[in-house]
């Protein structure tokens, strides 16, 4: 699809250093080989170079030798990385022996490399649980200024082009926060706007979803969405955003005009912000399965540098796409 090709072309133009901690994982090695062949990024593989190359030879890989190899057991920057870790987390009880031990873990090493400025982003999760991928990122990469919460967005490519931006919509949060506060919900909206501009390459029109449209129902859950909308507008007055809106009022022009007359967003939203993880996760999977939409993500947003988590059921092409997306996020943050 054209958007993914555009994302890949931008990645080639501004090559970023993307670290792949799971160098033992075969899908990751295939993806790294293709990414190198397509010149999508400067790929950093964490692990013993000779072992990785032997594995690559068995798999028939031709380009893996072009990667940068970082051996956690023989790394000349280990001491510098340990000092950085202590600066950040000694007050949390981290000791030097513990830091040195953590730096043998590729997931921690990848996160610290990013914080130290030796990598621009990370893709992992093909062989690790989400919590194991995100924990080092939260501890060392941390979040962007003004953002306290990390969230997960999906690019939804719909069969019907009348919705969103010629069939493209962005859904969030569908992956991380079970029950965000009104402030967190506002931050998710602001972060998703940045993702929409950087990755979807379009100007966001954001609908803050609820079971109510413009006061058609009264409930504390409706109040939360209304307040979150106001906070998001204060955080970024340039945003095109409205809420609270029901889903049909957000995406169907005729319904939007009837339920929310005068709204600049109703009926033409291309970004949907769900009030909680339950509704977001259910919605994207229903649209994906029943509507036969293609869902790309989750794209983690709100981090000071991009760290993206794969599904353990991911395909090689999923990893390649996420490498390109991560590169584009890194480009946008510079």
Secondary structure layout:
Layout: H1 2-13, E1 17-20, H2 26-37, E2 42-46, H3 49-59, E3 68-70, H4 78-89, H5 96-102, H6 106-116, E4 121-124, H7 130-141, E5 151-157, E6 168-172, H8 182-198, E7 205-209, H9 220-235, E8 240-245, H10 247-251, H11 253-259, E9 271-273, H12 277-290, E10 294-301, E11 307-309, H13 316-333
Parallel strand pairs: 1-2, 1-4, 2-3, 4-11, 6-9, 7-8, 7-9
Antiparallel strand pairs: 5-6, 5-10
Task: Tell me about this structure.
The chain has 13 helices and eleven strands. A six-stranded mixed sheet has the order 8-7-9-6-5-10, sandwiched between helices. Strands 3-2-1-4-11 form a five-stranded parallel sheet, with helices on both faces. The chain has helices at 2-13, 26-37, 49-59, 78-89, 96-102, 106-116, 130-141, 182-198, 220-235, 247-251, 253-259, 277-290, 316-333; strands at 17-20, 42-46, 68-70, 121-124, 151-157, 168-172, 205-209, 240-245, 271-273, 294-301, 307-309. The mean pLDDT is 95. With 334 residues, the protein is α/β, with parallel strands linked by helices. Helix 2 (26-37) packs across helix 13 (316-333), helix 6 (106-116) runs parallel beside helix 7 (130-141) and helix 8 (182-198) crosses helix 9 (220-235). The chain folds into two domains: 2-142 and 304-333, Rossmann fold, CATH 3.40.50.10950; 151-295, Rossmann fold.
């Amino acid at each position: 699809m054209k958007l993914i090709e555009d994302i890949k072309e931008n990645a080639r133009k501004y090559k970023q250093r993307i670290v792949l901690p799971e160098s033992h994982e075969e899908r990751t090695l295939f993806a790294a080989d293709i990414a190198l062949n397509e010149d999508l990024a400067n790929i950093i593989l964490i692990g013993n170079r000779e072992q990785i190359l032997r594995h690559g030879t068995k798999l028939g890989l031709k380009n893996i030798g072009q990667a940068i190899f970082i051996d956690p057991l023989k790394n000349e920057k280990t001491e510098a990385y340990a000092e950085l870790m202590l600066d950040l987390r000694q007050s949390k009880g981290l000791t030097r022996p513990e830091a040195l031990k953590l730096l043998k873990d590729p997931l921690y090493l990848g996160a610290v490399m990013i914080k130290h400025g030796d990598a621009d982003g990370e893709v992992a999760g093909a062989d690790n649980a989400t919590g194991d991928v995100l924990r080092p990122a939260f501890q060392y990469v941390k979040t962007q200024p003004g953002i306290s919460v990390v969230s997960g967005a999906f690019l939804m490519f719909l069969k019907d082009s009348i919705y969103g931006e010629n069939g493209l919509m962005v859904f969030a949060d569908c992956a991380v926060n079970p029950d965000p506060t009104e402030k967190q919900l506002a931050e998710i909206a602001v972060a998703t706007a940045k993702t929409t501009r950087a990755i979807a390459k379009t100007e966001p029109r954001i609908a803050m979803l609820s079971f109510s449209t413009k006061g058609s129902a009264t409930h504390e859950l409706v109040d939360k969405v209304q307040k979150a909308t106001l906070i998001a507008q204060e955080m970024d007055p340039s945003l095109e955003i409205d809420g609270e809106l029901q889903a049909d009022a957000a995406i169907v022009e005729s319904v939007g005009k009837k339920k929310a007359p005068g709204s600049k967003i109703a009926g033409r939203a291309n970004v949907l912000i769900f009030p909680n993880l339950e509704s977001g996760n259910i919605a994207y999977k229903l649209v994906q399965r029943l509507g036969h939409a293609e869902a790309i993500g989750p794209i983690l947003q709100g981090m000071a540098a991009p760290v993206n988590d794969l599904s353990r059921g991911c395909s090689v092409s999923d990893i390649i796409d996420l490498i390109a997306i991560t590169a584009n996020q890194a480009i946008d943050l510079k």
